[in-house]
Amino acid sequence: MKKLDTVTYAVEGQVAIITLNRPERMNTLGGSMKPDLACAFFEWARADPQVRCVVLTGAGERAFCAGADIKERAASTPPPADYFVNQQRTHELFSGIASFEKPVIAALNGVALGGGLELALCADMRYAADHARLGLPEVKLGVIPAAGGTQRLTRVVGAAKAKELVFTSALIPAAEGLALGLVNRVVPAASLMEETMALARSIAAQPPLAVRFAKQAIDLGQQVDIHSALQYERFSAAMIVDSEDRKEGMRAFVEKRAPRFQGR
To answer: What does the alpha-carbon distance between residue 118 and residue 156 come to, in Å, rounded to a whole number?
Structure first.
C-alpha cells in the first residue's frame, strides 16, 4: 500500500478510517488531496472485503476541512471552460463518495466550510464535535458553492434554509446544524471518534448486502417520483431475498444466537 501525502488510511476491525491530513492548512482540499481521497475510497476501502463501513474525519482539532485552499487558488484564474472541466472531476469524486456502496460517516472534528461541508454532505451520516462550525461561505468570495453544495445542502435542509445559509455565507454552530438535520449528533470533542466508531461498528455488524441495497434504495428514492422509488425498493428486496445472509439471519433468529453474516 503506497503512502499518500494528504490522507491517512487505517482499518480497525471492519471499519476503515480515512483522515484528511493537512492540519497545518486546515485540511483544505489542495495538494494531492482529491486523488488521495479517490485512492483511499475507490482502491483501498472498496477492494477490502473486510471493510463494511467508512469513517471520514480530519487531523487535528481545528478543522474537518476548510474547503478549497484559497492561497493556492488566489494566484490564478482559470478560463471558464477549463474550470467547468476541472469541476466535473470534483463532482465525479464527490458523487462517487456519496454513492459509495459501503456506508460513510463523517466525523466533523472542527470547521467544515465550503468544499469541506460539501464533502461532509456526501457522507450518509454526520457526527460533529460540539465546537464545530459549518457553512458555505463561497458567495462572499464572489463565487458559489460548486462541489455539490447548492444541491446536496438543499436536499438535507430544504430550499429556503439552504438559500439563507448560502446567500449570507453564514457559519452555524454544530448545535444549529443538529436542529436543521444537517448533523445526526453533536458530542464533546474528546468523545467524537469513540461515538462515531461505535456507530460504525454497529452498522458493520449488520448484513452488508442488506445495508448496501437499503442505502441505494434510500438515495435513489430522493431523486425520483414515489412510484419509481417503490419499484426500486421492490427490486432491491428481490435481489437479496435468497441471499445467504438472509438465510443466516433467519436461522440465527430462530436459534436465538448471534448471526454470522458473510456478505453473500
So the answer is: 12
Q: How far apart are CA 256 and CA 261, in angstroms?
A: 15
Handedness of CA 196, 201, 206, 212 (dihedral sign): positive
What residues does 54 pair with on adjacent strands?
16, 104
Closest by alpha carbon to 192, among 173, 174, 177? 174
User: Each residue of 200-246: pLDDT tens digit?
Assistant: 999 999 999 999 999 999 999 999 999 999 999 999 999 888 887 88
- Give pLDDT tens digits for 10-29: 999 999 999 999 999 999 99
Instruction: Map out the domains of the chain with their CATH numbers.
Output: 7-204 (3.90.226.10), 208-255 (1.10.12.10)
64 contacts 112 by C-beta, under 8 angstroms: yes
Q: Which amino acid belongs to residue 132?
A: A
Burial of 177 (0-12, 13-18, 19+ CB in 10 A): buried
As annotated, the active-site residues are 118, 138
pTM of the model: 0.93
Euclidean distance between CA atoms 2 and 131, whole angstroms: 34
d(CA 123, CA 179): 18
Contact 164, 153 (CB under 8 A): no
Calculate the alpha carbon distances from 221 to 149, 161, 180, 202, 231 in Å: 20, 22, 21, 24, 10
Instruction: Indicate the residue type of 24.
Output: E
Using CA of residue 104, residue 211, residue 188, residue 155, what is the dihedral sign?
A: positive
Cell numbers 490564478 correspond to 76
